[in-house]
Each structure stands twice: as structure tokens, then as C-alpha cells.
Design a protein that fits this description.
By secondary structure, the protein is an alpha/beta fold. It has two domains: 2-173 and 225-253, 3-Layer(aba) Sandwich (Rossmann fold), CATH 3.40.50; 175-223 and 256-324, UDP-galactose 4-epimerase, domain 1. The chain contains ten helices and 15 strands. It has helices at 11-23, 55-65, 79-84, 86-106, 140-158, 192-200, 228-243, 261-272, 296-302, 311-324; strands spanning 2-6, 27-32, 46-49, 69-72, 111-117, 128-129, 164-170, 172-174, 207-210, 222-223, 225-227, 249-253, 259-260, 278-281, 290-293. The strands form four sheets. It has a seven-stranded parallel beta sheet with strand order 3-2-1-4-5-7-12, sandwiched between helices. It has a four-stranded mixed beta sheet with strand order 6-15-10-13. Strands 8-11 form a two-stranded parallel sheet. Helix 6 (192-200) packs parallel to helix 8 (261-272) and helix 6 (192-200) packs across helix 10. It is globular, with a radius of gyration of 19 Å. The two termini are 30 Å apart.
């Protein structure tokens, strides 16, 4: 297939590009502005450095590419920043995605895989969500993704014979390529496991816990952590699903169980052998107490079994990558 991967130089996108390249039978074009992505993370395919906000350039890429499918990662993802600068998130995450969908219709690209987020669920009462659970984002990041989901679904309904999409709702993505070739490389990342790995290696003075008074067993937030390679593999499954005539659909991407912030930090301390400094502080705006995927649908539909469902393995791959990271 001829594939366009937006944000393919970023954390999750680069891991998918690696899997696609290892398969070896696809033509991969990567569109990335390199604001948070990195050229060395691209192990396969051709990079076009461009911004989705540049509509003329993006349309030129579609004119020349004759793509069979778009896999759309490019987005802003920092929840607290979305609260302080919501327009940045709506313009990039929603407006640019809408234009991307428009170009798919205009240029006959019939398959679309969208990176969405568990943030669309907001703060569910019991913290465990199905794909059919209520959608009530509590921050602009989640709302910007939910609005994009709606545009995408409405478009699939308007063009049912020409355009199909799979929406993947990510939970907390962590870890690094088990081969050690790529990983999470954005130096100011807010991902807990990366931050903990940096603290263990002395690259950060401490790890901050944002909130110790949540209604959870140890007072810290609980999240469902999925290894980045397992998540990348779900995009391959989504592509196969569409290629086999599957209908447009939505899937939770998580392991179905969670860990608290304290449990994650304890795991990183065990893996690294370093008792790094931890500082407790108040909650951040927009953070739910608990968010875990019910992943029965994706397991059933695609006979999916995760390969790396181990908090210590996730921490170890993140730490190993951080030790060798050069960009």
C-alpha cells in the first residue's frame, strides 16, 4: 500500500513506521513538522517536512502521493497546556484533522486510521470504560480529539462506499522499541515513565507527583499503561481490518488494568536500582483519578493478545532507551 503517516517522526508514529518497514511491502511517506519528532527516529520511508496547517503544501502532498490510506498521529498532546492554550489544540488537533479528512475525500483516499485518546471519556464514575461509555472530556485536549472523531464518523456516514476509518483510543503509552533502535525522544516529555527513567539516570532532579488525594487506594492517579510497540501493532491490525473490508469502528487500546503513580515509580526504582527523589504536589487541572480500558472489543474483534503486558518490561525498555538516547 501507499501510506501517508502524519507525525511519523514522533514517539508512537516512529514505532509504527518501524513495524511497517520491517514488514517491507508498503511505500511509506511521512509528513512531520519535526516540532516534537526527530529525523533519526525515522527508520524507513520518505520524510516530507511540512506542517498540516500549511494547506497548500498538504494538498500538494496528496496530489502527488496517490495514497491508499492515511494514518494520522500528528497532534498536540499535553493536557495542562491544552487547558492554558485551548486554541492551539483546537486549531491543530481538530481543524487540521478536518482538512486532512477533506483531502482524503477529494483525492480518493479510502482508508483512515486516527489516533484518539482515552481523554474523550473524561472522568468516568468507576474509572473503567467501554467504547460505548459516555463521552465527556474534562480538558480541551480530550475535546479536540472528540470533535475530530465526530468529523471522521460523520464523513464515513456521508461516504460509506468510499471512505472508512478506524478510531483507536489510546490509554497511557509508554516504553520503547525492544530492539533499542527508537524510543520516546522529546526531552521535555511529560510522560510519567519517561520522566521517572530520566530521574533514575540523573537527567532530572526529581519526579513530581501531581495529586495525592485522589479517591484511589494510595491517593495517586491510576492509569492503564500500554507498551508503545503493542500499540503500534494495533495500527497494523487496523489497516488489515480495513483492507479486509471491515467497517468503520472504534477500539480502546489498553491492557485492561491500571497502576497508580506510586506503583509506577516503585517499578522504575526496582528496575533501575536507583532511589530517585519524589516530590508530592497538588493535582493538575484536567487529570481524572482513574482511567482504565475495557479492551474486550479489540481482543475479540482482532484476536489480539498483547506481547509486552508487564510494567517492569515497559519501565526497563524506557530506561534502556534513555541510557542510550543521543537525540
Amino acid at each position: 500500500m501507499r501510506l501517508l503517516v502524519t507525525g511519523g517522526a514522533g514517539y508512537i508514529g516512529s514505532h509504527l513506521v518501524k513495524l511497517l518497514g520491517d514488514i517491507g511491502n508498503h511505500t511509506i511517506t511521512i509528513l512531520d513538522n519535526l516540532s516534537t519528532g526527530h529525523r533519526p527516529a525515522i527508520l524507513y520511508g520518505d520524510l516530507i517536512k511540512a506542517d498540516l496547517a500549511d494547506r497548500e503544501k498538504t494538498e500538494e502532498i496528496f496530489k502527488n502521493g496517490r495514497f491508499d490510506a492515511v494514518i494520522h498521529f500528528a497532534a498536540h498532546i499535553v493536557v495542562p497546556e491544552s487547558v492554558s492554550d485551548p486554541l492551539k489544540y483546537y486549531m491543530n488537533n481538530t481543524v487540521n484533522t478536518t482538512n486532512l479528512i477533506r483531502l482524503c475525500i477529494k483525492y480518493g483516499v479510502g482508508k483512515f486510521i486516527f489516533s484518539s485518546t482515552a481523554a474523550v471519556y473524561g472522568e468516568p464514575a468507576d474509572g473503567v470504560v467501554l467504547e460505548t461509555s459516555a463521552l465527556d472530556p474534562i480538558n480541551p485536549y480530550g475535546m479536540s480529539k472528540l470533535m475530530s472523531e465526530r468529523v471522521l464518523l460523520d464523513t464515513t456516514r456521508a461516504f460509506p462506499d468510499r471512505f472508512k476509518a478506524v478510531i483507536l483510543r489510546y490509554f497511557n503509552v509508554a516504553g520503547a522499541d525492544p530492539d533499542g533502535k527508537i524510543g520516546q525522544s522529546f526531552p521535555d516529555a511529560t510522560h510519567l515513565i519517561k520522566v521517572a527513567a530520566q530521574a533514575a539516570l540523573g537527567k532530572r532532579p526529581q519526579v513530581n507527583i501531581f495529586g495525592t488525594d485522589f479517591p484511589t487506594p494510595d491517593g495517586t492517579g491510576i492509569r492503564d499503561y500500554i507498551h508503545v510497540t503493542d500499540l503500534a501493532g494495533l495500527h497494523i491490525r487496523a489497516l488489515e481490518h480495513l483492507n479486509n473490508g471491515g467497517n468503520s469502528d472504534i477500539f480502546n487500546c489498553g491492557y485492561g488494568h491500571g497502576y497508580s503513580v506510586r506503583e509506577v515509580l516503585d517499578a522504575m526504582k526496582r528496575v533501575s536500582g536507583v532511589d530517585f527523589k519524589v516530590v508530592e504536589g497538588p493535582r493538575r487541572p484536567g487529570d481524572p483519578a482513574k482511567l482504565i480500558a475495557n479492551n474486550a472489543k479489540v481482543r475479540r474483534a482482532w484476536n489480539w493478545e498483547p506481547a509486552y503486558d508487564s510494567l517492569e518490561f515497559i519501565c526497563r525498555t524506557a530506561l534502556d532507551w534513555e541510557k542510550k538516547r543521543t537525540y
